[in-house]
Amino acid sequence: MTREQGGAEAPEEGAVDLVVAGAGGGLAGALRAAEAGLDVVVVEADEAFRRGNNTSMSTAMIPGAGTRWQRAAGVDDSAESFLSDVLAKTHGEADLTLATALTGFSAELVTWLADGLGLPMELATDISYPGHSVTRCHTVPSRTGAELLDHLVARTRRHPRVDFLTPARLVEARTGDGRVRAAVAQYPDGTREEIPTRALLLATNGYGADADAVRRLMPEIAGAVYHGGEHSRGDALRIGRALGAATGYLDAYQGHAALARGAGTLVGWATIMHGGVLVNAEGRRFGDETVGYSEYAAMLAAQPGATGWIVFDERVHELCLAFGDFRDTVEQGAVVGADDADGLAARCGLPADRLADTLAEAARHAEGATADAFGRGGWEAPLRPPYRAVRVEPALFHTQGGLAVDGGARVLREDGSPVAGLYASGGAAIGISGHGAGGYLAGNGLLPALGLAVLAADQCRDGVPA
């Protein structure tokens, strides 16, 4: 166990200004607070967190509405339009206060990441994601969370006002005079350290690694592969509840139907949005793939053998090489190819006649000759041989419910009053995806992870009463 010193001196009272539990998206809050002159301690349970948490596993897509990147690309967008998309995707179930705050802050967040932290942000103009009415996802050149997190880690470790405590798990928050006064960290050998603090940000993600909780709260995805941080075990829920915090949307999650079976890499939904199709073990499509990769995970889990194949062509393949995760999938040898449908069926072990019929029918839909029985429209282009395919299985990426928070990331009790000095972000908070998996929009993981962390830091900076 190590305590990495950034060189900061604690305030005279012996308390740091902010403890951040979790070195993923919470690092944005640590940096925001430190740059405002606050002293911060980051507590992280996993020494390998740079490759072992959900931020690093993401595609680094951060939605921003009304940014300069959008204006340069001729994209007309606004916070109001973004909020409308969130409410439409969640069928009005998203928490309105939080959704309004995050969509309204989204452009400022992306701008600060670029101008304040030096992240090489760009607008992903070559891909449309389900539910977003315009192009608004901003990302880094590799389109990998690893690049995003590496940048945050490097900036944080260089900052003189930030200390790291790792490996250490936050296990308790102690209060006095009606507010958070200390955070308790536990080391792997069982010893504990109390850190006096004026505020605590819980950025420990959700509870996706707690198989029992997943089976109880979201049984439709319980049999899927968990593809997330191993320390996402509901620590924030336990700590917050002990202080009287309310919770919400505990059945909400981000699923994914494009995890390469065997390789464990993310194929990515760009394969679908550029014109690919997903077939089951019988060679049949079973829905409108463009409704969203999150809800499609449970649909794939219900298919024979809980597996399927994403089928695409050379055009789609070339377009998807822009994504680091897709390149990893190719390098792992998970993508197979063939000159025609019969050859592809043989490579994949699929019924040749049925696969050929499925691809021919999809091509007619894409050409506009026939309407898709599942309602899929807006086909980018028909698939043409030679074909490629990759076997996929459903996955649970992270939960989207947690502690109730307001628009400033303050944790709330059942009566709506704040737990003084306690904040939550990312999977530790309720999120803006409504219930279940269907309300998830691309970026609904990173926007609350980064955005709420920064908003919490601003509250601490401004001395806003918690």
Summarize the model shown:
The chain is an alpha+beta fold and 466 residues long. The chain has helices spanning 26-35, 49-52, 54-57, 68-72, 79-89, 96-115, 145-158, 211-217, 235-242, 270-273, 293-301, 314-320, 324-331, 341-348, 352-367, 446-462, and strands spanning 2-4, 18-21, 40-43, 62-63, 122-123, 137-139, 162-166, 169-176, 179-186, 192-196, 200-202, 225-226, 247-248, 253-260, 277-280, 308-313, 335-338, 387-399, 402-403, 410-412, 418-424.
CATH topology of the largest domain: FAD/NAD(P)-binding domain
Name of the level-1 CATH class of the largest domain: Alpha Beta
Taking strands numbered 1, 2, ... along the chain, how are they ordered across the largest sheet? 1-7-3-2-11-21-20
Total strands: 21
Task: State the separation between the terminal residues, measured CA to CA.
Answer: 33 Å
> What would CATH call the homologous superfamily of the largest domain?
FAD/NAD(P)-binding domain
Q: Please tell me how large the radius of gyration is.
A: 22 Å
Query: From the coordinates shown, what is the CATH architecture of the largest domain?
Result: 3-Layer(bba) Sandwich
> Which class do the helix and strand fractions yield?
alpha+beta
Essential attributes:
33% helix, Flavocytochrome C3, Chain A, domain 1, seven-stranded mixed β-sheet, 466 residues, six-stranded mixed β-sheet, FAD/NAD(P)-binding domain, 2 domains, alpha+beta
